[in-house]
Amino acid sequence: MSAPSIPNLLSLRARGGRGRSRGRGQGRGGFGTGSETAASRGQAHDAVIQGTDTDAAVSRLSAVDVGYLSDPYARYFVSALDGPPARRFPIINRGTYTRTTAIDNLVHSFLAGADGEEQKGGVTRQIVSLGAGTDTRPFRLFSQQGHPQLVYHEIDFSVTSTKKLKTVEAVPPLASILTNRSTGDTGGWSSQPLNGEYFCHGIDIRRLSPAATEILPGLRTDVPTLILSECCLCYLSQEESEGVLEYFSSRIPNISVVIYEPVHLGDPFSDTMVSNLAARNIHMPSLDRRRDEGDQAARFKQIGFETTRQLSIDRLWSKWVSAEEKERVDRLEGLDEIEEWQLLAGHYVVVWSFRGDGFEGWRGIE
């Protein structure tokens, strides 16, 4: 399954937030009556997952509008038909900010490589984003100077990849970045930006496994590669999610992965998260088992990764955000619910793991 990044589970609390609720994509599908077939229930669940990408886009734009993040492309992926964009609660904005900046830091460290390769140019790196949805990262990366040659893949449902192409074609600032576009037969498309290659694959990632004979068009197996999963693999069964990772790790010697997702810590708050998701007809198999740092390390070691590290969102805020930056963020809105923030953010983690050469910039990150 391709799984667009759902709201930080943080955004489940934003439904009563300030501003107009957008609601697009929420409540679609559902499990209905027992007369429905398993296939129809699966399709309905997929539709709900696809719809949650709207929540992610609105949360990103809210953080941008308030001043947490700088992203000139965020507004192009939120429809103006429903009125002014919703503004999330401060706790949601801070969660979006922390998650985004943490992953950006890991991405830029990966691109920089050893001894500042990023500044030298000519070094090819590859990123594969699972369930990318309306993510703006490729636009931000391809518009920046000084990066190495970059091969960027986004994988999502065909309907989502087709919609993204239509948005790019309709918005000149986006079209000027992803230039020289061409389309495939299954909803996929590609582009040849000035400093690399871009591929948007319209496929169901559940088709990817070590035994799959299908090779993604444009996928390089000879360059350091980063797999991104922001609330994507958590929707798959353990067998499916490990199969997707093995699809890439069995083909690419120098590989890394960054995962952002909620975790079940065996406490009442975790149970409430699961109930809130169930109320929206969303099931995350990853929450059926507790995943602490030891679980994650064992998970990736079994697949063949050498090094695994993990930090919760509240620890990322504490360790990776400078005192000066914390002061800037605090001035934007302020946050009175400190204990609530620590509880909520403690249930989301960023995990990064790698194997092989090309990840020298990650070895000292804690």
TrEMBL record:
Residues in coiled coil: none
Reaction(s) the record says it catalyses: [phosphatase 2A protein]-C-terminal L-leucine + S-adenosyl-L-methionine = [phosphatase 2A protein]-C-terminal L-leucine methyl ester + S-adenosyl-L-homocysteine
Listed GO MF terms: protein C-terminal leucine carboxyl O-methyltransferase activity
Residues that bind S-adenosyl-L-methionine: R99, G131, D204, I205, E230
GO biological process, one term: methylation
One Pfam family cited in the UniProt record for this chain: LCM
Entries under InterPro entries matching the protein: LCMT1, Ppm1/Ppm2/Tcmp, SAM-dependent_MTases_sf
Annotated Gene3D superfamilies: Vaccinia Virus protein VP39
UniProt entry keywords in alphabetical sequence: Methyltransferase, S-adenosyl-L-methionine, Transferase
EC numbers on record: 2.1.1.233
Segments of skewed composition (Basic residues): 15-25
Extent of the signal sequence: none
Claim: Ribosomal protein is one of the keywords in the record: no
Domain of life: Eukaryota
Start and end residues of each stretch annotated as Disordered: 1-45
Family: Belongs to the methyltransferase superfamily. LCMT family.
Known function: Methylates the carboxyl group of the C-terminal leucine residue of protein phosphatase 2A catalytic subunits to form alpha-leucine ester residues.
PANTHER family documented for this protein: LEUCINE CARBOXYL METHYLTRANSFERASE, LEUCINE CARBOXYL METHYLTRANSFERASE 1
Protein name as it appears in the record: Leucine carboxyl methyltransferase 1
Protein's organism: Hypocrea virens (strain Gv29-8 / FGSC 10586)
